[in-house]
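Design a sequence for this backbone.
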């Protein structure tokens, strides 16, 4: 994996963490819960010294945990398999969220068809809501990329092919 690709992963993580800190009131319990669910199953550090009111400090701390998890994954795999792992994690995030998006658009289509008798333009309404939904999907993909990179378990089958077990 090149340095530029690594920086792109860091950029995605930074964006996810910034969104988290800006949208929610950060408490110790909330932060620990987020870390367990998205960054590390085995988190044992103490965060009482962390200034939870300082967004930059919280983001930096989450970035440090993200980096540690990537290094842990990298240490278990050679360069070829690590690159494969990253590709699979990204593809899984895109694929699972795209399936949800298509399902949502099908439901939206039915809903908009039912609204045709209303005064709004159904095509305009569909496009407006679909665009909003697309933006939400993009954010969900980024969150899942971070989660899958940090919490996936890697192994090999009997033919030395990479196996990745993704978290729920």
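Sequence:
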């Amino acid at each position: 994996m090149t340095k530029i690709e690594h920086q792109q992963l860091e950029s995605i993580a930074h964006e996810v963490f910034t969104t988290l800190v800006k949208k929610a009131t950060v408490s110790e319990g909330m932060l620990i819960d987020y870390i367990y669910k998205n960054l590390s199953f085995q988190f044992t550090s103490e965060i009482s010294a962390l200034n939870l009111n300082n967004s930059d400090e919280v983001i930096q701390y989450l970035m440090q945990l993200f980096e540690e998890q990537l290094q842990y994954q990298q240490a278990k795999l050679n360069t070829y398999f690590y690159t494969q792992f990253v590709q699979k994690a990204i593809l899984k995030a895109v694929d699972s969220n795209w399936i949800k998006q298509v399902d949502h658009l099908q439901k939206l289509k039915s809903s908009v068809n039912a609204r045709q008798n209303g005064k709004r333009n159904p095509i305009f309404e569909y496009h407006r809501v679909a665009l909003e939904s697309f933006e939400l999907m993009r954010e969900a993909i980024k969150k899942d990329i971070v989660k899958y990179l940090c919490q996936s378990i890697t192994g090999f089958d009997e033919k030395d092919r990479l196996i990745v077990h993704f978290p729920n």
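Residues 1-100+139-168 form one domain.
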